[in-house]
Each structure stands twice: as structure tokens, then as C-alpha cells.
Design a protein that fits this description.
- The protein has 296 residues and is α/β, with parallel strands linked by helices.
- The protein has a single domain, classed as TIM Barrel (Alpha-Beta Barrel).
- It has 11 helices and 12 strands.
- The strands form 2 sheets. It has an 8-stranded parallel β-sheet with strand order 1-12-11-8-7-6-5-2. Strands 3-4-10-9 form a 4-stranded antiparallel β-sheet, with no helix packed on it.
- It starts with a strand and ends with a helix.
- About 2% of the residues have low confidence.
Length: 296
């Protein structure tokens, strides 16, 4: 099991030590052209998490390749690049540009950002277009706000996804108690934090049964027990998100807590606990387990 950051929840250029404490660093989502993102206010705290409406602010692919990637390579950790767009062709364009960069281990397809207008094509069509443009492993980042996330996951796998990232934020709203108006400039935003955890666990559990590809579980993880629950639900790896804003030492702390949780339950490693939340009737074959454990 590897520990990553959720895209957009860690700036490795300003906090390189935190990025180096992870097993891989995931960049903020990049788009073909630079984006300033949405107008302020873009972040609001809630009782059990936070809302954001950043709007995919990023320097664009040209600057990422020319300026950002050379610095990220000095971190000495594997790099994943999150890519986004407003049409399937834009995802393919980005994947093609990044295909020859040996320092990039995998590409995460952000097909589910709640803070911008999404591409009109389905997640499967976006994956299919991206697959034709790159040889690198592709992880489809899915939203839990769909009628059947397992169906979406199966379609993404059939289209060529090598893995899944579950889940993206889900749309929520916070009202200012003084003005009784939305706190965020765009009213609703992407909700993350501890309250997202049960939703994310349900998505991981469903997609583990429905597919045979690795899953990066994320959503509300704040301690080692949370990590163990995601692994038990079927996650191959886990990513830390909102917790990194308040606790930059979270990766080291959570590793220690996870080790204690595993030892207390008699597991030699997190891999031994993967999928134990599923009954024996749905146990996967050894071949399927091997597929999940490999980033191809």
C-alpha cells in the first residue's frame, strides 16, 4: 500500500518536505491553458470538513512541463500528474504531451471536478481518448454523485483505465450565519473532510467488487484507522486530502497509527487486510488480487 496526496491538497513547491514524506506526489489538475480559477471566496470551513470552489486554477500544461516538473523531479518521489479538460480531446492532448516524460509514473484523469463545467462526454469516453494518447497508467478519478458508481467504474475499466481514484469531492453548500448568503462565490462547492468518509468507503467497496483494477481510496482520512478501513473496503493505495491543510505531519503520524492498527489485528501488512470487508462469497481470485496490486 502506498500513501499519496489527493490532487490539489498539497503544494510541493512550498512544502517539499511534506511531499517527500509520501510514497508518490499527485500534482494539482493541469489543463491545456492557464486558468485563474473562480473568484473569491473560494474556501469555507464547515462543522466536519471544508468546501472549496477553486475552479482548477493552474499554470497550464506548457508551464507545468517547462517550469514545474523540473522542480518536482528534485523531490525524489514518484510523480503522478492530474489532468483535466472540457472535452475528451483535451484530455488526450494533455496525455500525449506528458507521455514521453519518464519522471511521470501515472496520470490521473480528473473527470469529476464539481467546481467547473464538466466535459460533455462520459468518463468512459474520456478514458478511451486518453488511452489512445499515452502508454502511461491511467487512473480515473470518479465522483460519488452518480446513480451507480460501480457501473461508471466498469465502463472506465473497459475503456482502458488502469486504476480508479475514489472519490472526488461532492457538491455542498454553506450559509453565512450573519448574512444568510452562501459563503462561496459560486454558492456551492466541493465538499471534503471527515463527513465524506462513509460516502467514499461505499464507493470503494462497490468498485472493488465490480472491477479488477487498483483503487486509490480517498475522502475524509485523518488517522491510521481510516486508512485500514479503506484498505478493508478494497483500496490498494490511499490518498490524504483535507487533513494536509491542518496537519502537515499527517503522513508520518498516520503511518505509525496504521502500523499499530494492523499489529493489533494480527495483519503483517496493509496488503493482508485488503478486501476483508467483503464476505467470502465475493473473494477475488489470486489473479485479480495481483492485478489490483500493480500500477501498470
Amino acid at each position: 500500500m502506498r500513501l499519496l496526496n489527493a490532487s490539489g491538497c498539497l503544494d510541493a513547491l512550498t512544502a517539499p518536505g511534506v511531499a517527500q514524506s509520501l510514497d508518490a506526489f499527485v500534482t494539482k489538475t493541469v489543463t491545456p491553458l492557464p486558468r485563474e480559477g473562480n473568484a473569491p471566496t473560494r474556501i469555507a470551513e464547515t462543522e466536519a470538513g471544508m468546501l472549496n470552489t477553486i475552479g482548477l486554477a493552474n499554470p497550464g500544461i506548457e508551464r507545468l512541463v517547462d517550469t514545474v516538473l523540473p522542480v518536482l523531479r528534485t523531490l525524489g518521489v514518484p510523480l503522478w500528474v492530474s489532468v483535466g479538460g472540457f472535452a475528451a480531446a483535451e484530455y488526450a492532448e494533455l496525455c500525449q504531451v506528458l507521455d514521453d516524460h519518464s519522471s511521470i509514473e501515472a496520470l490521473e484523469l480528473n473527470v469529476s471536478c464539481p467546481n467547473v463545467d464538466e466535459a460533455p462526454e462520459s468518463a468512459a469516453e474520456i478514458v478511451r481518448n486518453a488511452r489512445s494518447a499515452t502508454r502511461k497508467p491511467l487512473f480515473a478519478k470518479l465522483s460519488p454523485a452518480v446513480p451507480d458508481i460501480a457501473e461508471v467504474a466498469r465502463a472506465a475499466e473497459a475503456a482502458g483505465a488502469n486504476g480508479l481514484s475514489l472519490v472526488n469531492t461532492i457538491r455542498g453548500l454553506a450559509i453565512d450565519e450573519r448574512t444568510l448568503r452562501p459563503k462561496l462565490s459560486r454558492a456551492a462547492g466541493g465538499y471534503s473532510g471527515p463527513a465524506l468518509k462513509p460516502i467514499a468507503l461505499a464507493a470503494v467497496h462497490a468498485c472493488y467488487s465490480a472491477t479488477q483494477i487498483p483503487i486509490v481510496g480517498m475522502g475524509g482520512i485523518v488517522c491510521g484507522r481510516d486508512v485500514l478501513e479503506f484498505v478493508a473496503a478494497g483500496a490498494t493505495h490511499v490518498a490524504l486530502g483535507t487533513v494536509l491543510f491542518t496537519d502537515p505531519d499527517a503522513p508520518a503520524r498516520i503511518r505509525g497509527e496504521l502500523a499499530a492498527e494492523l499489529a493489533a489485528r494480527g495483519f503483517a501488512s496493509a496488503d493482508d487486510a485488503r478486501g476483508v470487508a467483503h464476505d467470502s462469497g465475493s473473494t477475488l481470485s489470486g489473479h485479480a488480487q495481483d492485478m489490483r496490486a500493480t500500477v501498470r
